[in-house]
Amino acid sequence: MTLNDFLFAFIPLFVAIDIVGTLPIFIGLTEEFDKRERKKLIYQAIATAFVLATVFLVSGMVILDFMGITMNDFRIGGGLVLLILAIQELLFSGEDTRRKPSGSIGIVPLGIPLVMGPAALTTILVLVSSSGFLATILSMIANLLIALFVLYYSQKIVRIIGVSGTKAFAKVAALFLAAIAIMMIRVGIVDIIKNT
To answer: The pTM is what?
Structure first.
């Protein structure tokens, strides 16, 4: 694994998770909790996101092989899903699509889909083939550590950059996610043409 492999996996996943853009939602969901309860919820959310992403990473390729789906098929399909999610984030409020409270909010919606949503899961599965398993899992761990840090200091970060700043960051991240989605679709189509 090279540094380029790691960065190629880290950057799309960082954009897909978009932890800074989700800060207003996180603060809104946890404002009634004290500092100790909020810390517990943050650890629960990150642990949930890690377990889900790891299960998806390990079993995703097995399921695709079993169903006869090639990586290029998944690149194109995953790219289309990411493109739709990016367009939805750009044109509509991200809060409605991510905020789905039920049960323990540390698991849902904080862990899933706030930290580890469909865009991040799709990105992880696509990255395994392009960057390799090691680069993908290391970038996943690095991104979750960043998410842990950002959520832990969420109130200070929002005070510094403001709610409008976090929303602007979310829009820029969505734009990059759309570009990454187009790249995935392009690579999938080019590889299919080369192999026919």
So the answer is: 0.81
